[in-house]
Amino acid sequence: MRTPNVTHRGPLVVITAAVLACAIAFYYFAAPLTGVTGTSGAMLVLIASLALALDGLLLRFKGNGAVFILAWVLGLLGALGTFTAAAFLHAWWLVAAVAVVLAGLLITLGFRQTKTQDTSQ
């Protein structure tokens, strides 16, 4: 019987960068004199960053199938929307963190090759 051995580096990049983006978004939302303190746009980016972290967890544990593809597409759309919102907020560190999330999503899809190991012996 063959079992797949999937590497999970892409989703770990997504999770790490999304958690970093969440921390940066919280800073922009809570710290005074950022220009977007307490605004709904900063809160939206904060919630979207949390959703991207959850999407990374879903990609990490659902390696194949329709759930993986759905999570990847939704993650891509969410990351593009968060990237755009962060650019509108002029939160450049947040833009950089979300760009790393996008790179992690591309890594996840690009290196989704499975190596099979024969365990019948």
For the biggest sheet, the summary is: 2 strands, antiparallel
How helix-rich are the residues, as a percent range?
over 70%
Strand percentage: 5-15%
Class based on secondary structure composition and strand pairing:
mainly alpha
Give the count of structural domains.
Answer: 1
Quickly count the helices. Answer: 4
What's the count of strands?
2
Compressed to H and E, one letter per element, the order equals EHHHHE
Rg over C-alpha atoms, rounded to the nearest angstrom: 17 Å
Mass-distribution shape = elongated
- Rounded mean pLDDT is 88
Low-confidence stretches: none
Q: For the largest beta sheet, what order do the strands appear in spatially? A: 1-2
Structure description:
With 121 residues, this protein is mainly alpha-helical. It has one domain. Helix content is 71%, strand content 7%. It has four helices and two strands; from the N terminus they run E-H-H-H-H-E. The chain has a two-stranded antiparallel ribbon. It is elongated and about 65 Å long. The N and C termini lie close together (9 Å).
